[in-house]
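To the wet lab folks,

You asked to see what we're planning to order before we commit. Fair enough. Below is the target structure as tokens, and below that is the sequence we designed to fit it. If anything looks off to you, flag it before the synthesis order goes out.
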């Protein structure tokens, strides 16, 4: 199924404006993420998606939209630690938004229901886009099954790459680098997936072998 382009606004890096808008849904993302995720979800057809960081809700709503458009049999849960007025509208539209801090002991442990969700049968996709992407990635990756994927936003492989190739060109925010997740990738046998594609939208994507 071809990608449906409904991008109404692109983030303006000159103004430090992170918001891109797809079909009326604002997301703090580079606008190219919409097409990238559409093709990615169609490719991997996840049975579960766990999102950390609902925020303004546009990316969450978009993911739900794509899963339905592609007729994917996907269970999708999004967590945030703050309740916003628009979350109830999202819930009314069938999106499972939960307001709860599921992490304990400075990201050394996480609620059992999150672990169980990741370990359900079928491919799980984990999206780390909350307030501590490094902690989220390093902890949640410990519970992945073979064939699962984990991604984290605001990524550049290092500070030099961010300053030379990303800042004011692709994205102005940098919260996670390769050195931050190196141990978790080795420990959990994670390898990089489609780096060229995901670098353009400042997400890191790893698959567990």
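Sequence we intend to order:
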């Amino acid at each position: 199924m071809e990608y449906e382009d409904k991008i109404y606004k692109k983030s303006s890096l000159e103004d430090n404006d992170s918001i891109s808008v797809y079909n009326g849904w604002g997301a703090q993302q580079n606008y190219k993420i919409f097409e990238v995720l559409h093709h990615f979800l169609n490719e991997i057809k996840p049975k579960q998606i766990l999102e950390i960081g609902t925020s303004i809700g546009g990316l969450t709503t978009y993911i739900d939209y794509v899963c339905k458009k592609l007729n994917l049999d996907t269970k999708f849960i999004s967590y945030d630690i703050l309740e916003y007025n628009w979350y109830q509208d999202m819930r009314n539209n069938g999106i499972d938004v939960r307001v709860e801090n599921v992490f304990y002991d400075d990201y050394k442990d996480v609620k059992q229901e999150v672990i169980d969700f990741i370990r359900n049968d079928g491919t799980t996709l984990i999206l780390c886009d909350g307030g501590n992407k490094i902690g989220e990635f390093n902890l949640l990756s410990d519970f992945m099954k073979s064939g699962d994927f984990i991604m984290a936003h605001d990524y550049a492989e290092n500070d030099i790459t961010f300053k030379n190739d990303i800042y004011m060109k692709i994205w102005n925010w940098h919260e996670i680098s390769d050195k931050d997740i190196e141990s978790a990738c080795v420990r959990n046998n994670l390898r990089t997936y489609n780096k060229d594609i995901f670098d353009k939208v400042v997400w890191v994507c790893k698959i567990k072998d």
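Structural context that might help your review: The domain at 30-208 is CATH 3.40.50.150 (Rossmann fold). The longest helix spans residues 33-44.

Thanks,
Computational group
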